[in-house]
Amino acid sequence: MGKQPVKLKAVVYALSPFQQKIMTGLWKDLPEKIHHKVSENWISTILLLAPVVGTYSYAQYYQEQEKLEHRF
What we know:
By secondary structure, this protein is an all-alpha fold.
């Protein structure tokens, strides 16, 4: 009972670098998809964006006040 070699066949899948139609479904009707997601989840969108916008505006205000402090 010795070991006998077994022939294996490998299947290789590859995409052509010249094929550009692979991701067209992702970009199709993108503005409509975004509008649908936001209109369904507008409360979550506000709760996500409010702290981000608030923090950014505070940082900009603080930086501007720090620059103006050195004038006088």
